[in-house]
Amino acid sequence: MAYQSIRDDDVHAATVRRIQNLAPDSERCWGVMDHDQLLPHLVDGMRLALDGTDRRARGLFATSLMRSLVVHRLSWPEGKAKAPEGAFQRVCEDWDADRAELLGLIERYRATPGDQLGNAHPIFGSMKTRDWDVLMWRHLDHHLRQFSC
């Protein structure tokens, strides 16, 4: 799998276009997340990378081998993986405002030096810049594909 990042200008431009093409009535192609949960979920993911977490990762996915496999190598199943508890609790209250917030966080991420990103992920544990870069792009891409963008 090729290493992609929203820090790359071409990947960034394509991702922004896909987000701008989302509509409040976008229907999912697979999975259980509704369209009104999509933008808040993506916003929360970006905030996690930028602001970090106090939750300490434990378990199999927090090992360097599993982090490497899941973040960098394995395909992410469509509609098969169970999201962490609380991953879809927030819902969109203002589509345009939530989309603007997501786009602003993507710009903030691109401008943030890697050593200023969160040190850890609540599932994958200790994260390096490349881990965050790959995870952020794959997470965005995964859910944008989920909603046919």
Please tag this protein with its features.
mainly alpha; 50% helix; globular; Four Helix Bundle (Hemerythrin (Met), subunit A); 5 helices; two-stranded antiparallel sheet; 2 strands; 149 residues; single chain
Per CATH, what is the topology? Four Helix Bundle (Hemerythrin (Met), subunit A)
State the end-to-end CA separation: 20 Å
Order of helices and strands: HHHHEEH
- The CATH architecture classification is Up-down Bundle
Q: Estimate the global geometry from the Cα principal axes.
A: globular
Q: What class do helices, strands and sheet pairing give?
A: mainly alpha
Brief digest:
The chain is mainly α and 149 residues long. The protein is built from 5 helices and 2 strands, in the order ααααββα.
What does this structure look like?
It is a single chain. This protein is an all-alpha fold and 149 residues long. It has one domain: Four Helix Bundle (Hemerythrin (Met), subunit A) (Up-down Bundle). 50% of the residues lie in helices and 3% in strands. It has a two-stranded antiparallel sheet. The radius of gyration is 15 Å and the shape is globular.
Write the layout of secondary structure elements.
Elements: H1 9-21, H2 35-51, H3 64-73, H4 95-111, E1 120-121, E2 125-126, H5 129-146
Antiparallel strand pairs: 1-2
Helix pairs in contact: 2-4, 2-5, 3-5
